[in-house]
Amino acid sequence: MTTDGISGPGADAGQAVPDKAVPPTANNALIRQGRRATPDMVAAARPPSGFEPIVSNSPFGWENGPLFERVPEGGGFEDGGLERGFRVDEKHINAGGFCHGGMIMTFADIVLASAVMTVADPPFVTVRLTTDFIASAKLDDWVTGRGRVTGQRDGLVMLSGEVLVEDTIIAGLSGAFKLLRARAAK
């Protein structure tokens, strides 16, 4: 067991978790529980006011975070979305010194999935994700993203969105997600 600086809801920061060599399926209880960034991780990321760390139920997400979200005052954007964000860290940098395109695409998938959750409950899967790279993010930039639902048909949710650094769009997004079950009646 190691201490990896990630904790779950109700757990103490620095709780012992299985070594990375243990397959994720052996760690299903922690995966279902979700994990949140520790106070040290949040402090290092220096999120702008209003951004809170998100709970991730994905080991892949743990490696790429911490990620944050902000719900605007009044309870939401006019299109129902959240704003997600992350601070570009050394682990996100490519050989050219910029945020790796794979990280931007990972973040894009998370941003659009957040918008899907305004109209559907998980599980759903990405069936198409198009990322048009327009500009780059560099070390220490605060990157944000927003997605919006543009249509629904035959169990598919279509979306668009953008990834930004400050007020500059660095990537345009479009995608489609397949719903794996209908939303439960409330």
Per DSSP E runs of 2 or more residues, the count of β-strands stands at 11
Number of helices: 4
- What would the principal axes of the Cα set say about the shape? globular
Structural class: alpha+beta
Please supply descriptive tags for the structure shown above.
single chain, 186 residues, alpha+beta, Thiol Ester Dehydrase, Chain A, 2 domains, seven-stranded antiparallel sheet, two-stranded antiparallel ribbon, 19% helix
Commentary on this structure:
This protein is an alpha+beta fold. It has two domains: 1-70, no CATH class; 91-186, Thiol Ester Dehydrase, Chain A, CATH 3.10.129.10. Helices cover 19% and strands 33% of the residues. It is globular. Belongs to the thioesterase PaaI family. Residues 96-167 form the Thioesterase domain. One of its GO terms (molecular function) is fatty acyl-CoA hydrolase activity. Keywords: Hydrolase.
What would a concise description of this structure say?
By secondary structure, this protein is α+β, with helices and mostly antiparallel strands.
Give the topology.
Elements: E1 2-3, E2 6-7, E3 16-17, H1 28-33, E4 36-37, H2 39-45, E5 52-53, H3 59-64, E6 68-70, E7 83-87, H4 101-116, E8 124-133, E9 142-153, E10 156-165, E11 168-179
Antiparallel strand pairs: 1-3, 2-4, 5-6, 6-7, 7-9, 8-11, 9-10, 10-11
